[in-house]
Amino acid sequence: MPETFHFSAIATISSCFKEKFGIPRQPGLVKTATAELHLDKQFSEESVRSLQGFSHLWLSFVFHKNLQQGWQPMVRPPRLGGNTRVGVFASRSPFRPNPVGLSVVELLGIEERQSGIVLQLGSCDLLDKTPILDIKPYLPYIDALPEAKGGFASSKPQIKMQVEFTPLALRQCQQAEQRLGKALKKMIEEILQLDPRPSYQQGVVSERVYAMKLCDFDLRWQYCENRLIKVLSLVT
Amino acid sequence: MPETFHFSAIATISSCFKEKFGIPRQPGLVKTATAELHLDKQFSEESVRSLQGFSHLWLSFVFHKNLQQGWQPMVRPPRLGGNTRVGVFASRSPFRPNPVGLSVVELLGIEERQSGIVLQLGSCDLLDKTPILDIKPYLPYIDALPEAKGGFASSKPQIKMQVEFTPLALRQCQQAEQRLGKALKKMIEEILQLDPRPSYQQGVVSERVYAMKLCDFDLRWQYCENRLIKVLSLVT
User: Is the entire prediction scored with pTM above 0.90?
Assistant: First the structure.
Protein backbone atom coordinates (compact mmCIF):
# COMPACT_ATOMS: atom_id res chain seq x y z
CA MET A 1 0.00 0.00 0.00
CA PRO A 2 1.61 3.33 -0.99
CA GLU A 3 1.94 5.87 1.82
CA THR A 4 -0.57 8.74 1.88
CA PHE A 5 0.47 12.37 2.32
CA HIS A 6 -1.75 15.17 3.59
CA PHE A 7 -1.47 18.76 2.43
CA SER A 8 -3.49 21.90 3.10
CA ALA A 9 -3.84 24.92 0.85
CA ILE A 10 -1.44 27.76 1.73
CA ALA A 11 -3.26 30.21 -0.54
CA THR A 12 -6.26 30.62 -2.85
CA ILE A 13 -6.49 32.10 -6.34
CA SER A 14 -8.87 34.87 -7.25
CA SER A 15 -9.27 34.82 -11.02
CA CYS A 16 -11.68 35.92 -13.74
CA PHE A 17 -12.23 32.26 -14.75
CA LYS A 18 -15.34 31.07 -12.90
CA GLU A 19 -15.67 27.72 -14.66
CA LYS A 20 -13.40 25.32 -16.52
CA PHE A 21 -14.75 25.89 -20.02
CA GLY A 22 -12.80 28.64 -21.75
CA ILE A 23 -9.72 28.66 -19.49
CA PRO A 24 -6.56 28.89 -21.60
CA ARG A 25 -4.74 25.55 -21.56
CA GLN A 26 -1.48 27.02 -20.34
CA PRO A 27 -0.45 30.20 -18.53
CA GLY A 28 0.97 33.00 -20.69
CA LEU A 29 -1.47 32.47 -23.58
CA VAL A 30 -3.94 35.18 -22.55
CA LYS A 31 -1.76 38.07 -21.42
CA THR A 32 -4.60 40.10 -19.96
CA ALA A 33 -5.93 37.27 -17.74
CA THR A 34 -4.22 38.46 -14.58
CA ALA A 35 -5.12 37.04 -11.17
CA GLU A 36 -4.51 37.45 -7.45
CA LEU A 37 -3.11 34.95 -5.01
CA HIS A 38 -4.37 35.34 -1.44
CA LEU A 39 -2.04 33.80 1.13
CA ASP A 40 -3.67 32.14 4.10
CA LYS A 41 -3.73 34.45 7.15
CA GLN A 42 -1.19 32.35 9.02
CA PHE A 43 1.53 33.58 6.60
CA SER A 44 2.98 37.01 7.32
CA GLU A 45 5.02 39.24 5.02
CA GLU A 46 8.12 37.37 6.23
CA SER A 47 7.15 34.24 4.27
CA VAL A 48 7.48 36.13 0.95
CA ARG A 49 10.44 38.36 1.91
CA SER A 50 12.79 38.84 -1.12
CA LEU A 51 10.28 37.26 -3.49
CA GLN A 52 10.03 40.56 -5.41
CA GLY A 53 13.51 39.90 -6.85
CA PHE A 54 12.05 37.11 -8.99
CA SER A 55 10.04 37.90 -12.10
CA HIS A 56 8.24 34.52 -12.21
CA LEU A 57 6.90 31.92 -9.76
CA TRP A 58 5.96 28.27 -9.84
CA LEU A 59 2.56 27.51 -8.38
CA SER A 60 1.73 23.96 -7.35
CA PHE A 61 -2.02 23.68 -7.10
CA VAL A 62 -4.93 21.28 -6.81
CA PHE A 63 -7.34 20.73 -9.71
CA HIS A 64 -10.07 21.09 -7.11
CA LYS A 65 -13.00 20.64 -9.49
CA ASN A 66 -11.67 17.26 -10.63
CA LEU A 67 -11.33 15.57 -7.25
CA GLN A 68 -14.31 13.29 -7.81
CA GLN A 69 -13.80 12.63 -11.50
CA GLY A 70 -10.94 10.17 -11.48
CA TRP A 71 -8.46 9.55 -14.28
CA GLN A 72 -7.63 7.23 -17.15
CA PRO A 73 -4.17 5.84 -18.07
CA MET A 74 -4.48 7.47 -21.49
CA VAL A 75 -5.83 10.90 -22.45
CA ARG A 76 -6.57 12.72 -25.72
CA PRO A 77 -4.67 16.02 -25.67
CA PRO A 78 -6.41 18.89 -27.49
CA ARG A 79 -3.08 19.50 -29.26
CA LEU A 80 -3.44 16.24 -31.13
CA GLY A 81 -6.92 17.10 -32.33
CA GLY A 82 -8.59 15.05 -29.60
CA ASN A 83 -8.26 11.77 -31.53
CA THR A 84 -4.82 10.51 -30.56
CA ARG A 85 -4.26 9.07 -27.12
CA VAL A 86 -1.09 9.51 -25.04
CA GLY A 87 -0.18 8.43 -21.51
CA VAL A 88 -1.54 10.58 -18.71
CA PHE A 89 2.07 11.21 -17.55
CA ALA A 90 2.99 12.38 -21.07
CA SER A 91 0.33 15.09 -20.81
CA ARG A 92 -0.57 18.07 -18.66
CA SER A 93 -4.16 16.85 -18.43
CA PRO A 94 -5.96 17.91 -15.24
CA PHE A 95 -7.30 14.35 -14.83
CA ARG A 96 -4.30 12.72 -13.15
CA PRO A 97 -3.72 10.07 -10.46
CA ASN A 98 -2.80 12.93 -8.09
CA PRO A 99 -4.72 15.96 -9.37
CA VAL A 100 -1.89 18.46 -8.85
CA GLY A 101 -1.10 21.14 -11.39
CA LEU A 102 1.96 23.23 -12.08
CA SER A 103 1.89 26.74 -13.52
CA VAL A 104 4.59 29.32 -14.09
CA VAL A 105 3.21 32.84 -13.61
CA GLU A 106 4.63 36.31 -13.72
CA LEU A 107 4.87 38.11 -10.36
CA LEU A 108 3.63 41.67 -10.82
CA GLY A 109 3.55 42.84 -7.22
CA ILE A 110 3.14 42.02 -3.54
CA GLU A 111 0.58 43.78 -1.35
CA GLU A 112 -0.02 43.70 2.36
CA ARG A 113 -3.74 44.05 2.95
CA GLN A 114 -5.75 43.81 6.14
CA SER A 115 -6.99 40.42 4.94
CA GLY A 116 -3.40 39.19 4.45
CA ILE A 117 -0.65 39.07 1.84
CA VAL A 118 -1.75 39.26 -1.81
CA LEU A 119 0.46 38.46 -4.80
CA GLN A 120 -0.48 40.16 -8.07
CA LEU A 121 0.01 37.64 -10.87
CA GLY A 122 0.31 37.98 -14.62
CA SER A 123 -1.28 35.77 -17.25
CA CYS A 124 -2.89 32.76 -15.53
CA ASP A 125 -4.65 29.55 -16.48
CA LEU A 126 -6.24 28.99 -13.08
CA LEU A 127 -9.84 28.60 -12.07
CA ASP A 128 -11.18 30.98 -9.45
CA LYS A 129 -10.75 29.59 -5.89
CA THR A 130 -7.97 27.17 -6.93
CA PRO A 131 -6.18 25.93 -3.77
CA ILE A 132 -2.43 26.56 -3.91
CA LEU A 133 -0.12 24.02 -2.26
CA ASP A 134 3.21 25.78 -2.79
CA ILE A 135 4.91 28.85 -4.23
CA LYS A 136 8.51 28.59 -5.42
CA PRO A 137 10.72 31.12 -7.19
CA TYR A 138 11.45 30.41 -10.88
CA LEU A 139 15.21 29.89 -11.21
CA PRO A 140 16.15 30.44 -14.86
CA TYR A 141 19.59 28.88 -14.48
CA ILE A 142 17.97 25.55 -13.67
CA ASP A 143 14.34 25.76 -14.87
CA ALA A 144 14.83 27.35 -18.33
CA LEU A 145 15.68 24.69 -20.89
CA PRO A 146 14.85 26.30 -24.23
CA GLU A 147 16.55 23.42 -26.08
CA ALA A 148 14.36 20.74 -24.48
CA LYS A 149 12.37 18.57 -26.86
CA GLY A 150 8.66 19.15 -26.36
CA GLY A 151 7.22 16.01 -27.95
CA PHE A 152 3.81 16.52 -29.49
CA ALA A 153 3.51 19.97 -27.86
CA SER A 154 6.63 21.65 -29.20
CA SER A 155 5.18 24.99 -30.16
CA LYS A 156 2.65 27.49 -28.87
CA PRO A 157 -1.00 26.79 -29.74
CA GLN A 158 -1.92 28.81 -32.82
CA ILE A 159 -4.49 31.56 -32.96
CA LYS A 160 -7.38 29.92 -34.73
CA MET A 161 -10.18 32.45 -34.89
CA GLN A 162 -10.99 36.08 -35.55
CA VAL A 163 -13.25 37.76 -33.01
CA GLU A 164 -15.92 40.41 -33.65
CA PHE A 165 -18.33 42.05 -31.20
CA THR A 166 -21.96 42.83 -32.02
CA PRO A 167 -22.92 46.46 -31.19
CA LEU A 168 -24.81 45.18 -28.11
CA ALA A 169 -21.84 43.13 -26.90
CA LEU A 170 -19.49 46.04 -27.45
CA ARG A 171 -21.69 48.35 -25.35
CA GLN A 172 -21.98 45.76 -22.56
CA CYS A 173 -18.24 45.22 -22.71
CA GLN A 174 -17.53 48.93 -22.27
CA GLN A 175 -19.92 49.00 -19.29
CA ALA A 176 -18.19 45.99 -17.75
CA GLU A 177 -14.75 47.54 -18.31
CA GLN A 178 -15.86 50.59 -16.35
CA ARG A 179 -17.46 48.49 -13.61
CA LEU A 180 -14.47 46.15 -13.18
CA GLY A 181 -11.55 48.41 -14.21
CA LYS A 182 -10.14 45.69 -16.50
CA ALA A 183 -9.19 45.55 -20.21
CA LEU A 184 -11.98 43.07 -20.94
CA LYS A 185 -12.28 43.47 -24.72
CA LYS A 186 -8.67 42.43 -25.24
CA MET A 187 -9.04 39.55 -22.77
CA ILE A 188 -12.20 38.22 -24.44
CA GLU A 189 -10.49 38.41 -27.84
CA GLU A 190 -7.42 36.56 -26.54
CA ILE A 191 -9.52 33.81 -24.94
CA LEU A 192 -11.78 33.22 -27.95
CA GLN A 193 -8.98 33.43 -30.56
CA LEU A 194 -7.67 30.13 -29.13
CA ASP A 195 -11.12 28.51 -29.64
CA PRO A 196 -12.05 26.93 -26.33
CA ARG A 197 -14.28 24.26 -27.90
CA PRO A 198 -13.30 20.59 -27.63
CA SER A 199 -11.21 19.61 -30.65
CA TYR A 200 -13.91 17.43 -32.20
CA GLN A 201 -16.20 20.45 -32.49
CA GLN A 202 -13.60 22.74 -34.01
CA GLY A 203 -14.29 23.85 -37.56
CA VAL A 204 -18.02 23.33 -37.05
CA VAL A 205 -20.29 26.26 -37.92
CA SER A 206 -23.78 26.22 -36.34
CA GLU A 207 -26.49 28.31 -34.75
CA ARG A 208 -25.45 27.08 -31.32
CA VAL A 209 -24.73 29.76 -28.71
CA TYR A 210 -21.72 29.05 -26.52
CA ALA A 211 -21.27 30.60 -23.08
CA MET A 212 -18.72 30.87 -20.32
CA LYS A 213 -18.73 32.58 -16.96
CA LEU A 214 -16.07 35.28 -16.85
CA CYS A 215 -15.56 37.78 -14.03
CA ASP A 216 -19.13 38.71 -13.00
CA PHE A 217 -20.89 38.06 -16.31
CA ASP A 218 -21.88 35.36 -18.81
CA LEU A 219 -20.08 35.72 -22.11
CA ARG A 220 -22.02 34.44 -25.14
CA TRP A 221 -20.78 33.87 -28.65
CA GLN A 222 -21.40 32.03 -31.94
CA TYR A 223 -19.20 30.46 -34.60
CA CYS A 224 -19.66 31.86 -38.11
CA GLU A 225 -18.12 31.11 -41.52
CA ASN A 226 -14.46 31.93 -42.25
CA ARG A 227 -13.16 31.21 -38.74
CA LEU A 228 -15.07 34.15 -37.34
CA ILE A 229 -16.42 34.30 -33.78
CA LYS A 230 -19.24 36.75 -33.10
CA VAL A 231 -19.50 37.89 -29.47
CA LEU A 232 -23.22 38.23 -28.78
CA SER A 233 -23.51 39.53 -25.24
CA LEU A 234 -22.05 39.97 -21.75
CA VAL A 235 -24.90 39.50 -19.27
CA THR A 236 -24.60 40.00 -15.52
CA MET B 1 -9.93 25.76 8.41
CA PRO B 2 -8.19 25.12 5.06
CA GLU B 3 -9.27 21.96 3.26
CA THR B 4 -6.91 18.97 3.39
CA PHE B 5 -5.92 17.00 0.30
CA HIS B 6 -4.66 13.42 0.28
CA PHE B 7 -2.13 12.10 -2.22
CA SER B 8 -0.32 8.79 -2.63
CA ALA B 9 3.02 8.21 -4.29
CA ILE B 10 2.73 7.11 -7.93
CA ALA B 11 6.42 6.15 -8.09
CA THR B 12 9.62 5.91 -6.08
CA ILE B 13 13.14 7.11 -6.88
CA SER B 14 16.15 4.83 -6.79
CA SER B 15 19.22 7.05 -6.51
CA CYS B 16 22.84 6.95 -5.36
CA PHE B 17 22.08 9.54 -2.65
CA LYS B 18 21.33 7.60 0.53
CA GLU B 19 21.20 10.58 2.90
CA LYS B 20 20.57 14.30 2.61
CA PHE B 21 24.12 15.51 3.26
CA GLY B 22 25.99 15.88 -0.02
CA ILE B 23 23.00 15.93 -2.39
CA PRO B 24 23.45 18.66 -5.01
CA ARG B 25 21.08 21.54 -4.30
CA GLN B 26 19.52 21.45 -7.76
CA PRO B 27 19.24 18.88 -10.55
CA GLY B 28 21.68 19.22 -13.44
CA LEU B 29 24.67 20.18 -11.26
CA VAL B 30 26.17 16.69 -11.02
CA LYS B 31 25.80 15.28 -14.53
CA THR B 32 26.79 11.74 -13.58
CA ALA B 33 24.25 11.42 -10.74
CA THR B 34 21.67 9.54 -12.77
CA ALA B 35 18.71 7.81 -11.14
CA GLU B 36 15.78 5.51 -11.81
CA LEU B 37 12.10 6.15 -11.30
CA HIS B 38 10.03 3.06 -10.51
CA LEU B 39 6.36 3.50 -11.31
CA ASP B 40 3.91 1.86 -8.95
CA LYS B 41 2.67 -1.48 -10.30
CA GLN B 42 -0.85 -0.16 -10.92
CA PHE B 43 0.55 1.90 -13.85
CA SER B 44 1.05 0.09 -17.12
CA GLU B 45 3.09 1.16 -20.14
CA GLU B 46 -0.02 3.02 -21.35
CA SER B 47 0.40 5.68 -18.67
CA VAL B 48 3.75 6.80 -20.16
CA ARG B 49 2.88 6.27 -23.85
CA SER B 50 4.50 9.03 -26.02
CA LEU B 51 6.61 10.28 -23.09
CA GLN B 52 9.79 9.35 -25.02
CA GLY B 53 9.17 12.35 -27.32
CA PHE B 54 10.07 14.67 -24.45
CA SER B 55 13.69 15.21 -23.43
CA HIS B 56 12.87 16.45 -19.90
CA LEU B 57 10.25 15.84 -17.21
CA TRP B 58 8.95 17.63 -14.17
CA LEU B 59 8.84 15.53 -11.03
CA SER B 60 6.66 16.65 -8.13
CA PHE B 61 7.86 14.85 -5.04
CA VAL B 62 7.65 14.73 -1.25
CA PHE B 63 10.62 15.73 0.91
CA HIS B 64 9.90 12.55 2.85
CA LYS B 65 12.71 12.91 5.37
CA ASN B 66 11.43 16.33 6.46
CA LEU B 67 7.85 15.41 7.29
CA GLN B 68 8.39 15.70 11.04
CA GLN B 69 10.73 18.67 11.00
CA GLY B 70 8.36 21.53 10.34
CA TRP B 71 9.22 24.86 8.76
CA GLN B 72 9.99 28.49 9.57
CA PRO B 73 8.63 31.58 7.75
CA MET B 74 12.19 32.58 6.88
CA VAL B 75 15.14 30.47 5.77
CA ARG B 76 18.85 31.07 5.16
CA PRO B 77 19.66 29.95 1.59
CA PRO B 78 23.16 28.52 1.10
CA ARG B 79 23.46 30.87 -1.89
CA LEU B 80 23.50 33.87 0.43
CA GLY B 81 26.25 32.41 2.60
CA GLY B 82 23.83 31.13 5.22
CA ASN B 83 23.59 34.51 6.99
CA THR B 84 20.84 36.32 5.11
CA ARG B 85 17.25 35.27 5.60
CA VAL B 86 14.57 35.23 2.92
CA GLY B 87 10.93 34.11 2.97
CA VAL B 88 10.34 30.38 2.69
CA PHE B 89 8.28 31.00 -0.49
CA ALA B 90 11.20 32.95 -2.00
CA SER B 91 13.39 29.86 -1.63
CA ARG B 92 13.53 26.26 -2.79
CA SER B 93 14.21 25.12 0.78
CA PRO B 94 12.99 21.58 1.55
CA PHE B 95 11.50 22.85 4.83
CA ARG B 96 8.20 24.24 3.56
CA PRO B 97 4.59 24.44 4.82
CA ASN B 98 3.77 21.66 2.32
CA PRO B 99 7.01 19.67 1.89
CA VAL B 100 6.65 19.20 -1.88
CA GLY B 101 9.59 19.56 -4.22
CA LEU B 102 9.88 20.20 -7.93
CA SER B 103 12.72 18.93 -10.10
CA VAL B 104 13.32 19.03 -13.82
CA VAL B 105 15.19 15.93 -14.98
CA GLU B 106 16.36 14.55 -18.27
CA LEU B 107 14.54 11.47 -19.55
CA LEU B 108 17.12 8.98 -20.83
CA GLY B 109 14.92 5.96 -21.45
CA ILE B 110 11.83 3.95 -20.58
CA GLU B 111 12.02 0.26 -19.67
CA GLU B 112 9.34 -2.32 -19.12
CA ARG B 113 10.57 -4.71 -16.42
CA GLN B 114 8.78 -7.52 -14.67
CA SER B 115 8.61 -5.30 -11.57
CA GLY B 116 6.94 -2.54 -13.59
CA ILE B 117 7.77 0.53 -15.68
CA VAL B 118 11.14 2.18 -15.02
CA LEU B 119 12.19 5.61 -16.26
CA GLN B 120 15.93 6.20 -16.66
CA LEU B 121 16.67 9.73 -15.48
CA GLY B 122 19.64 12.03 -15.98
CA SER B 123 21.26 14.27 -13.39
CA CYS B 124 19.12 14.22 -10.23
CA ASP B 125 19.02 15.94 -6.84
CA LEU B 126 16.75 13.37 -5.21
CA LEU B 127 17.25 11.22 -2.16
CA ASP B 128 16.92 7.46 -2.59
CA LYS B 129 13.30 6.30 -1.99
CA THR B 130 11.82 9.76 -2.65
CA PRO B 131 8.05 9.39 -3.19
CA ILE B 132 6.93 10.90 -6.51
CA LEU B 133 3.49 12.52 -6.67
CA ASP B 134 3.39 13.38 -10.35
CA ILE B 135 5.29 13.26 -13.64
CA LYS B 136 4.64 15.90 -16.27
CA PRO B 137 6.33 16.54 -19.61
CA TYR B 138 8.55 19.64 -19.78
CA LEU B 139 7.02 21.99 -22.37
CA PRO B 140 9.75 24.40 -23.51
CA TYR B 141 7.30 26.79 -25.19
CA ILE B 142 5.72 27.51 -21.82
CA ASP B 143 8.24 26.40 -19.13
CA ALA B 144 11.48 27.83 -20.57
CA LEU B 145 11.83 31.48 -19.60
CA PRO B 146 15.54 32.21 -20.01
CA GLU B 147 14.91 35.95 -19.55
CA ALA B 148 13.24 35.52 -16.14
CA LYS B 149 14.85 37.40 -13.26
CA GLY B 150 16.27 34.93 -10.74
CA GLY B 151 16.59 37.18 -7.68
CA PHE B 152 19.40 36.13 -5.37
CA ALA B 153 19.93 32.87 -7.29
CA SER B 154 20.50 34.22 -10.78
CA SER B 155 23.46 32.09 -11.78
CA LYS B 156 24.71 28.54 -11.39
CA PRO B 157 26.52 27.74 -8.13
CA GLN B 158 30.24 28.03 -8.72
CA ILE B 159 32.73 25.20 -8.46
CA LYS B 160 34.50 25.93 -5.21
CA MET B 161 36.98 23.12 -4.62
CA GLN B 162 39.56 20.95 -6.33
CA VAL B 163 39.31 17.22 -5.60
CA GLU B 164 42.17 14.72 -5.20
CA PHE B 165 42.02 11.01 -4.35
CA THR B 166 44.52 9.29 -2.04
CA PRO B 167 46.00 6.10 -3.57
CA LEU B 168 43.76 4.02 -1.27
CA ALA B 169 40.63 5.96 -2.25
CA LEU B 170 41.51 5.69 -5.93
CA ARG B 171 41.89 1.89 -5.63
CA GLN B 172 38.60 1.56 -3.75
CA CYS B 173 36.91 3.80 -6.32
CA GLN B 174 38.07 1.61 -9.21
CA GLN B 175 36.77 -1.48 -7.38
CA ALA B 176 33.43 0.23 -6.78
CA GLU B 177 33.21 1.32 -10.42
CA GLN B 178 33.61 -2.33 -11.48
CA ARG B 179 31.12 -3.54 -8.86
CA LEU B 180 28.44 -0.96 -9.69
CA GLY B 181 29.16 -0.26 -13.37
CA LYS B 182 29.03 3.51 -12.81
CA ALA B 183 31.46 6.41 -13.50
CA LEU B 184 31.97 7.02 -9.78
CA LYS B 185 35.21 8.99 -9.85
CA LYS B 186 33.67 11.72 -11.99
CA MET B 187 30.52 11.71 -9.86
CA ILE B 188 32.46 12.06 -6.60
CA GLU B 189 34.49 14.90 -8.08
CA GLU B 190 31.36 16.70 -9.28
CA ILE B 191 29.63 16.35 -5.90
CA LEU B 192 32.60 17.50 -3.80
CA GLN B 193 33.59 20.37 -6.14
CA LEU B 194 30.35 22.12 -5.06
CA ASP B 195 31.36 21.74 -1.38
CA PRO B 196 28.41 20.16 0.40
CA ARG B 197 29.27 21.69 3.81
CA PRO B 198 26.88 24.21 5.36
CA SER B 199 27.90 27.74 4.31
CA TYR B 200 29.15 28.72 7.77
CA GLN B 201 31.77 25.96 7.64
CA GLN B 202 33.00 26.79 4.15
CA GLY B 203 36.56 28.02 3.94
CA VAL B 204 37.45 26.20 7.18
CA VAL B 205 40.45 23.85 7.09
CA SER B 206 40.61 21.20 9.82
CA GLU B 207 41.48 17.61 10.64
CA ARG B 208 37.81 16.72 10.63
CA VAL B 209 36.80 13.81 8.42
CA TYR B 210 33.53 14.31 6.55
CA ALA B 211 31.43 11.42 5.28
CA MET B 212 28.38 10.75 3.17
CA LYS B 213 26.57 7.59 2.14
CA LEU B 214 26.72 7.17 -1.63
CA CYS B 215 25.55 4.11 -3.59
CA ASP B 216 26.62 1.19 -1.38
CA PHE B 217 29.61 2.82 0.37
CA ASP B 218 30.64 5.56 2.80
CA LEU B 219 32.65 8.28 1.11
CA ARG B 220 35.16 10.03 3.40
CA TRP B 221 37.11 13.20 2.76
CA GLN B 222 39.02 16.08 4.35
CA TYR B 223 39.45 19.78 3.61
CA CYS B 224 43.05 20.90 3.03
CA GLU B 225 44.70 24.25 2.29
CA ASN B 226 44.18 25.99 -1.08
CA ARG B 227 40.55 24.84 -1.59
CA LEU B 228 41.68 21.26 -1.94
CA ILE B 229 39.55 18.25 -0.95
CA LYS B 230 41.33 14.99 -0.30
CA VAL B 231 39.16 11.88 -0.80
CA LEU B 232 40.30 9.44 1.89
CA SER B 233 38.29 6.27 1.33
CA LEU B 234 35.22 4.50 -0.03
CA VAL B 235 34.21 1.87 2.52
CA THR B 236 31.43 -0.65 2.00
Answer: yes
